[in-house]
Amino acid sequence: MGKRIAVLTWFNRGRNYGQTLQAFALNHTLRRMGHQCTMLSYGRSGPRLTEEEINGLTGDAREQQREFTRFIKEHIDYSPRLREPEDVRCYLQGNDFDIALCGSDQIWNIHIPSFEMVYFFNFPLTYSKVAYAASMMDARLIREYDQYPEIPRLLEDFDAVSVREDSGKTLVEQLTYGKVRATVVLDPTLLLTQEEWMEEVALPQVEWNNYLFCYMFDVSVAQRSLIQQLAESTGCSTIVFLDAGGHDVSEWDGVCFQQIKRVSIEMFLSLGCHAKAVATDSFHGTVFSILFEKNFIALENGLVGEERLDRVLTLLQKVGLSKRLVRLGQESSVSLEERIPYPAVNVRLNQERSASLKWLS
Questions:
Q1: CA angle, 303 as apex, 316 and 263 as ends, to 5°?
Q2: CA–CA separation, 2 and 70 (whole Å)
């Protein structure tokens, strides 16, 4: 008999590919297990934007929002719009769910501007609380949690806790003095195989051939040089640059350069799937590079702190690809000739996927 599960996570906050895809993947996985899953449509700018709110956006952002809204309506089962934490409390207390589940993504990272205590279910419930792949921050910053003294008590109120990074496991166990034992699991996007992603999401045609897909929030001069070297070493005639940070990037010398700013979720996946190689400073850019078995480099993002790098490190260590992470200042020492042994990578990934699905079950 399947459970009735309410999931509180981020999706479509600022038209973010990774957030929406992890919500899709968790919803899909729980339903595939035979459960009824309702994603809580929470947030002042959440997925249930009104037509008036969508029309208030400008240019490409408006059209991209329409594409995100369409994808969510087609693929995700969600609640009525809940604008305030009090709305979440009333909805969960007023409905007879079996489990309230929070996660994944960085919902427990107190450095995120949108951090809210509601993601710890900071109110009484008569049914179980579970966290799946919740993401926090670097364990070295544990003292910053002193400003939220209620978090240890709320963690102890969970029936089961899993996190996405090794640092999250350390933080949970240190904050609760070992009373809560956290398990490190895969991000929901990795619970689906490459074949399942291509079955569930129709990937459109890509207009470029023989290209390097570059999905970046920021790019330094040294990283730009390394990306050009990767394009040359893999024989890519074009660099397709999807600008996630909203920056203008001038044309690069010596390559055919195509900059795009906003595409649909399906096109985002298709660009990664059909690329000859990938360069990214995004966690989910790294995830789909591995899923689609691409030659890739994962670049350190200079705009964010160390607390957000552990999610990439943990993933790469799990699948034996730690060398694919390029730290700032180390670009000149990177070897681009080494091929990625995907048969061995997939063995490790399948083991991690099985363990994560077992934990979720």
A1: 75
A2: 28
Q: How far is CA 20 from CA 48, 136, 319, 349, in A?
A: 13, 18, 24, 22
Q: How far is CA 142 from CA 131, 146, 175, 226, in A?
A: 19, 8, 8, 34
Rounded CA-CA distance 244/14 in Å is 11
Closest CA to 150 of 110, 112, 186, 191: 110
Q: Read off the DSSP letter of residue 82.
A: B
Give the model confidence (pLDDT) of 213-235 as tens digits: 999 988 888 998 999 999 999 99
> What distance, in Å, lies between the first and last C-alpha atoms of the chain?
13
Q: Take residue 50 and report the two structure tokens written for it.
A: 């009104």
Report helix, strand or coil for 138: coil
CB of 14 closer than 8 Å to CB of 217: no
Q: Which residue has the tokens 């694919």?
A: 324
Q: Which band of pLDDT confidence, cut at 50, 70 and 90, is reported for residue 108?
A: very high
Token digits of residue 75:
């693929």
Q: What is the CA radius of gyration of the chain?
A: 20
User: Which 8-state DSSP code applies to residue 95?
Assistant: S
- Collapsing DSSP to helix, strand or coil, 63 comes out as helix
User: Can you tell me the distance from the alpha carbon of 89 to that of 71, in angstroms, rounded to the nearest whole number?
Assistant: 27
Q: What is the DSSP letter of 326?
A: E
Packing angle between helix 283-291 and helix 310-318, nearest 10 degrees? 20
> Above 90 in pLDDT, residue 139?
no
34 — phi, psi (to 5°)? 100, 10
Band the pLDDT of 249: cuts 50, 70, 90.
low
**Axis-axis angle for helices 283-291, 265-274 (nearest 10):** 50
Cα–Cα nearest to 321, from 303, 339, 306: 339
Angle value at C-alpha 200, between 275 and 313, nearest 5 degrees: 55
